[in-house]
Write a structure and sequence with these properties.
- With 1032 residues, the protein is mostly beta strands.
- It contains 16 helices and 51 strands.
- The strands form 9 sheets. The chain has a 22-stranded antiparallel β-barrel, surrounded by 5 helices.
- A hairpin with a 3-residue loop joins strand 29 and strand 30.
- Pfam families: Plug, STN, TonB_dep_Rec_b-barrel.
- Its main location: membrane.
- Keywords: Cell outer membrane, Ion transport, Iron, Iron transport, Membrane, Receptor, Signal, TonB box, Transmembrane, Transmembrane beta strand, Transport.
Length: 1032
């Protein structure tokens, strides 16, 4: 039976410095490149073992890459190999009597192939034209059948790894050599993963997920496949709005390799394959058992990590069983465990004011404006918190002069009560088994389970005024004690709660993936594969939060009335306000909020592939697919946080749920035009059955491969793509959020535009789902080359361009408030005439989205709620260059080296948020764009006898400075490891990640804590020791 390969050629792309290093090594005694790898003799000591294992160990010992179709080696045993041989000699001895042989490409990739019968008996189904082997005149000519594999980007099996679209392949060995502890860490290091995402530091709605943002087009626009099958969405929407897939729940111990196609591929895989496809290929046909234990910690303390893996399998004459078990534990890292996480280290503080602590306990007179004076607190108040608070005189700049606002309690510690890295406790299991019923029929099944518990800390709660159910807190009220409107603020601390741990949020997650299938051959030309699969993801999140009416009862008392302008009247309980709570008191005014969510996808597919007939230049390849799936989700936030209810203090959430059925048919062709030119063409039709305006989608792609010589490939591809509206965009029952925005109407009315300083405040925004949304559409194209310069040395370069139309975006509260102001004043922030009349339908819509309530001293009411909407209007286009180099060097004296270099540079990035907006052609360099313009990775691996070492670096390009004037410096991270095989079965490795303890580039203009962009990690240098033991 024909199957996919377990070891494939990697085309990864390292850098000039590493290239110069490797060149220097070669000048110091490397053998000539053309003969270094396979002509050099190596010492082998391989016992008799399953043939697949023997070939893997041979490749590892010789530093070469061997393509091994698993069906060819299953059930075969290799003889013992001991002595010094060249690679070709060693392969001949290992394959003796197996009916197999080997062949090499110019780039040094070795393929194990079946030795065909003599020419008188033609091979049953050659995948390429037979190649004659020189022989004596009296001997019959011998032919070989070239193995074919399926690589992400096409369902047609092919003899070459490289195709019309660039595909990056990361092996399990490479993940380990580069120092990555998880699959997500490996994917995050890819040069095409340049887009900013909600990180661990950001917290937010999806705080325990690990999204991937390829090309900066957004997490929901790259598709995650497990063994070619769609994974279930993360149950909680990204930033509370859109669905995406979690790249953090894949057990690294089960991974064979990862294939990444960065570009549109909807014609092959359907919706969501807009910016790329990540296909995680899990292990199969494994023989023996391997145990790995890795333990480590960070150099600055905290984040202890333990990773235990057991991978094993058995192979019989007609069957195989592969299994993997993994346990991973990571300690929660707090902000107060890092000296650099300090509010006082503000590099851009105003020299007249210096750095001021967070206002932790204060009473502002006259309302919420930052210019209002503070009411003095009784002496000794701050000391009651035992060092958590400090007495501070707050000041402001007014008219160029420093003006004192008054005394209050400040906190230097509050920003430190956050997590820098979540605590995790994960267990995973994976099993794959197959059985050959005959030479033409195979059955298989796989199951993967991942169970995780995690905890995080997103800061402590604050109290800023009385609460109103359905709306949330109000920042000010009239207090007869002071005969004034006051705005009180108070932060809770570990003193109030009885410890930091009591404020941790807790997560429970479980994903499950089950698939069964049959595959076989139809005649001598076609392979078929029928698959049924089910993937599920369950999520639970709990957190302790205060209850709004209990906060009112404890601190503010009952409402005593209402002022003529609508301001409520309360009497602040000063005895309770000016002292710490006891843990029992906090427990009495708080509750446990619970969020539950689940997502699922069930899929059935049938694929038929093979050669239709022979053309003058070769066979016409074809693959056809029929597919049906049902996808759904259900999200149930705590009923007390739903928009319109909001009974918990300063906490909101989102609810929703629905299903979507999809039916698809697709076909691909691989058309050899000449001996050197091949074309590919694919088309797909997707039919949707749900409540949206989406009925169907038609996508296609085309590609060309020109090989003027055996060593040069010139390629190009064009693809269309689409993305159906995310289920939560459609079925959301309302998503709430608290955030700061500028009250543009007040600003223009006061003549403070365009700066509007002092006119921003916190308001509540509700986003609702819309079943009338349409699909996003896109197109992408690329052109480039792959050149095998010499044996072991190859380079590649590709230009890429991706365009996205009708992208779904939420209209921000800032945009809505700006248009509301335009409708009411007839002016824009810049003073220009607004584009719509005040009585137009558009203005009636926009003004109806804003809810205001009266406020003392203001002729224009205060914004209490903005109702936002998702729309199909956004336009995005990105274009750039990817390039890479892969160089393998073998020496007799100094060992074997592998140099990898990858580079990606975004040349152009454009966007248009609304159809009425201008296209921002310079979005790439915009001060609000935190996508990296460029990324470079470089790796150097070395092995000699029992020793090995690796060095890996990532160079992150610059980002705009905080003040928008200029850009930050670049940022380098270095990982290194060294290993020693202490016996034939045991190996030790020592890892140092972030070798130089580099945290982030310095930005002297950044005045917003933590004073660097949160795309960088504050963890610092980490150490780990790994022990590996093989059981045969």
């Amino acid at each position: 039976m024909k199957n996919t390969t377990t070891t494939v050629r990697r085309r990864r792309h390292p850098m000039a410095a590493a290239l110069a290093t490797a060149l220097g090594l070669s000048l110091l005694g490397a053998a000539p490149l053309a003969t270094a790898q396979q002509a050099a003799a190596h010492q082998f000591a391989l016992p008799s073992q399953p043939l697949g294992d023997a070939l893997n160990r041979l490749a590892e010992a010789a530093g070469v890459q061997i393509l091994v179709p698993p069906d060819l080696v299953r059930g075969r045993t290799a003889p013992q190999l001991a002595g010094k041989y060249t690679v070709n000699q060693a392969l001949d001895k290992v394959l003796v009597g197996s009916g197999l042989t080997h062949r090499s490409t110019r780039a040094g990739v070795i393929t194990v192939v079946r030795a065909a019968e003599p020419a008188a008996r033609p091979a049953p189904r050659p995948a390429a034209k037979p190649v004659a082997k020189p022989a004596a005149a009296e001997e019959p000519l011998e032919t070989t059948e070239i193995a074919t594999v399926e690589v992400t980007g096409s369902r047609i099996k092919r003899a070459e790894i490289e195709g019309p679209s660039p595909v990056t392949i990361i092996s399990a060995e490479q993940i380990e050599n580069e120092g990555h502890a998880t699959v997500f860490e490996a994917l995050e290091s890819l040069v095409m993963a340049s887009g900013a995402v909600e990180t661990e530091l950001s917290g937010g709605f999806s705080a325990n997920a690990h999204p991937l943002n390829l090309r900066g087009l957004g997490p929901g626009r790259s598709l995650l496949l497990i063994n070619g099958r769609r994974a279930a969405d993360y149950p909680f929407p990204y930033e509370g709005r859109s669905n995406f897939q979690n790249f953090g729940n894949i057990p690294s111990g089960a991974v064979e390799r990862i294939e990444v196609l960065a570009g549109g591929a909807s014609a092959i895989y359907g919706a969501d394959a807009v910016s790329g496809v990540v296909n995680v290929v899990l292990k199969r046909d494994y023989q023996g058992d391997t145990f790995k234990l890795r333990a480590g910690t960070s150099g600055m303390g905290g984040r202890d990590r333990v990773d235990a893996q057991w991978t094993g399998g058995r192979i019989g004459e007609h069957w195989s069983l592969t299994y993997a078990l993994q346990y991973y534990n990571q300690e929660l890292l707090y902000g107060f465990q890092r000296d650099g996480w300090d509010l006082r280290k503000n590099p851009a503080a105003d020299r007249r004011l210096g750095v001021e602590p967070t206002a932790a306990l204060r009473i502002r007179r006259g309302g919420t404006s930052s210019s209002n004076p503070l009411i003095a607190l009784p002496a000794g108040t701050c000391a009651r918190w035992g060092g958590e608070f400090t007495d501070w005189t707050y000041r402001r700049i007014s008219g160029g002069n420093v003006q004192a606002l008054g005394n209050a309690c400040g906190s230097w510690n509050d920003p430190r009560y956050v997590h820098l890295s979540k605590g995790k406790n994960e267990a995973a299991a994976y099993v794959f088994g197959n059985y050959d019923f005959s030479e033409r029929l195979e059955g298989w099944a796989s199951v993967q389970v991942w169970d995780a518990k995690a905890e995080s800390l997103g800061g402590f709660e604050s109290i800023t005024g009385p609460h109103t159910d359905g709306v949330g807190r109000r920042g000010d009220f009239f207090d007869p004690q002071f005969n004034a409107v006051i705005a009180p603020t108070r932060l809770l601390t570990p003193v109030d709660l009885g410890g930091v741990e009591d404020m941790n949020q807790h997560y429970k997650e479980r994903s499950f993936d089950l698939a069964v299938g049959l595959r076989g051959q139809l005649g001598d030309r076609f392979d078929w594969d029928a698959t049924l699969s089910r993937a599920e993801y369950d999520f639970e999140r709990t957190r302790r939060r205060m209850v709004g009416n209990k906060v009112n009862e404890f601190f503010f008392g009952p409402q005593l009335g209402t002022r003529p302008n609508g301001t409520p009247i309360h009497r602040l309980n000063l005895e309770r306000w000016l002292r710490p709570l006891t843990p029992a008191e906090y427990a009495s005014i708080s509750t446990l909020a619970k969020y539950q969510a689940e997502s699922w996808v069930s899929t059935g597919s049938f694929v038929l592939s093979g050669d239709l007939f022979e053309l003058p230049a070769g066979p016409l390849g074809m693959a056809a697919i029929l597919e049906a799936s049902r996808q759904g989700y259900r999200l149930d936030s705590d009923p007390r946080v739903q928009p319109g209810v909001v009974q918990l203090y300063n906490l909101t959430g989102t609810n929703g749920g629905g299903e979507r059925d999809r039916y698809a048919a697709g076909i691909e062709f691989s058309l050899p035009i000449t001996q050197t030119l091949k074309a590919s063409l694919a088309g797909r039709f997707d039919k949707y059955d749900d409540i949206t305006a989406v009925d169907d989608a038609k996508t296609w792609n085309a590609g060309l491969e020109w090989r003027p010589t055996d060593s040069l490939l010139i390629r190009g591809s064009y693809a269309t793509s689409f993305k159906a509206p995310d289920l939560h965009w459609v079925f959301s029952e309302g998503s709430g959020s608290f955030g700061s925005a500028t009250d543009t109407w007040r600003c223009i009315a006061a003549g403070a535009n365009p700066g509007c300083s002092g006119y921003g405040y916190t308001m509540f925004t509700v986003t609702e789902g819309d079943p009338n949304l349409e699909e996003e559409t896109g197109k992408s194209w690329s052109a480039g080359l792959v050149w095998d310069i010499a044996e072991g040395l190859s380079v590649n370069a590709d230009y890429w361009n991706i365009e996205l139309n009708g992208a779904l975006e939420r209209i921000s509260s800032t945009s809505i408030l700006a248009d509301e102001a335009g409708c009411r004043t007839g002016k824009t922030l810049s003073g220009q005439p607004f584009g719509f009349a005040g009585d137009s339908a558009y203005c009636q819509l926009v003004t109806g989205l804003v809810t205001r309530t009266p406020e003392d001293g203001q002729s224009i009411g205060r914004v209490t709620q903005v109702r936002s909407l998702p729309i199909n209007q956004s336009f995005r286009r990105v274009a750039g260059i990817d390039a890479g180099l892969n160089w393998r060097i073998g020496t007799e004296r100094y060992g074997r080296y592998n140099v990898r270099l990858n580079w990606s540079h975004t040349l152009k990035s454009e966007r248009q948020v609304l159809a009425t907006d201008r296209i921002e052609g310079d979005w790439r360099d915009d001060e609000d764009n935190l996508d990296f313009r460029s990324r470079v990775t470089a790796g150097l691996d070395w092995r000699r006898d029992a020793w090995s070492a690796s060095l890996f670096t990532t160079r992150y390009g610059s980002l705009p400075k905080f003040n928008g004037q200029g850009r930050t410096g670049v940022h380098f991270l270095w990982n290194a490891n060294v290993g020693k095989r202490i016996t034939d079965k045991a190996e030790l490795k020592f890892y140092v990640n972030n070798l130089f303890n580099s945290l982030h580039p310095h930005d002297e203009t950044n005045s917003s804590f933590p004073y660097f962009y949160e795309v960088y990690s504050p963890v610092g240098r980490e150490f780990a020791l790994q022990f590996e033991y093989k059981l045969d």
